[in-house]
UniProtKB/TrEMBL annotation:
It comes from Aurantiacibacter marinus. Coiled coil: none annotated. This is Short-chain dehydrogenase. SUPFAM superfamilies: NAD(P)-binding Rossmann-fold domains. Belongs to the short-chain dehydrogenases/reductases (SDR) family. One of its GO terms (molecular function) is oxidoreductase activity.
Length: 251
């Protein structure tokens, strides 16, 4: 029996990269997974790979009506939600002077407003869980200065703060819902491949303990998500977890 047997999970941006791996590992631990993505075909491919315990839906996280449709489907199917992983994101490579208004607004719509909508509209279903878990994906960019990822850093910093307030709100309301943030450094995903100028060129990630400066694997993130969503993490809320192989603390 898996750690997440019969839990109901929603992963945004689940069609590729970190979201895809999250879906696979949550399902492997027994969760029923809703795979949502702006790319409906990618979401369907992941759901098909998982099997009968997965549902794919097209989902623009910046759209309130899309969120309402997703939660309406989950409510009709199960009447509750146990796990929300706000993973969907984009990255625009532009420093503070180069970033356009349109780039900044689009980045914030997806990764800040999108997280806000997911949490706000999802709480009525999450509050029915006996051990609800919200995982908001952030980045080491919320802790350090990354001028080329200016808008991305701004959005992740907002989510970092918003998540702490949400964790306390759930406690104050008596909801059995925890909220934590994950802050990966470079993980081998299509987003990183594009940011590093090698779109579509996947590099193998070594097994075992990795040397300084190494890129991590999606499973390094997904494994922590599984733990934080399980009963083993019942005392963990409002936390921020760096998944960076020590990069942040390196002099």
């Amino acid at each position: 029996m898996g750690k997440l047997e019969n839990r109901i999970a929603l992963v945004t941006g689940g069609g590729s990269g970190l979201g895809k791996q999250d879906c696979m590992q949550l399902a492997a631990e027994g969760a029923h997974v809703y795979v949502t993505d702006i790319d409906e075909n990618a979401a369907k491919a992941v759901a098909d790979a998982i099997g009968d315990t997965a549902v794919a839906m097209k989902h623009d996280v910046s759209s309130r009506s899309d969120w309402e449709a997703v939660f309406a489907r989950i409510a009709a199917d199960h009447g509750k939600l146990d796990i929300l992983v706000n993973n969907a994101g984009i990255v625009v490579v532009a420093d503070p002077e180069e970033t356009t208004d349109e780039q900044f607004d689009r980045t914030m719509d997806i990764m800040c407003k999108g997280v806000f909508l997911g949490c706000k509209l999802g709480l009525p279903l999450l509050s029915k869980s006996e051990n609800g878990s919200i995982i908001n994906m952030c980045s080491t960019a919320s802790h350090q200065g990354f001028p080329p990822f200016f808008a991305y850093s701004a959005a992740k910093g907002a989510v970092r703060s918003m998540s702490k307030s949400l964790a306390i709100h759930c406690q104050d309301k008596g909801y059995k819902v925890r909220c934590n943030t994950l802050h990966p450094s470079a993980i081998e995903t299509p987003m990183i491949q594009g940011a590093m100028g090698r779109p579509g060129e996947e590099q193998a990630v070594d097994s075992g303990v990795l040397p300084a400066g190494a890129i991590g694997a999606p499973s390094d993130v997904a494994s922590l998500i599984v733990f934080l969503c399980s009963d083993d993490a019942r005392f963990l809320t409002g936390g921020e977890y760096l998944i960076d192989n020590g990069a942040y603390i390196r002099p």
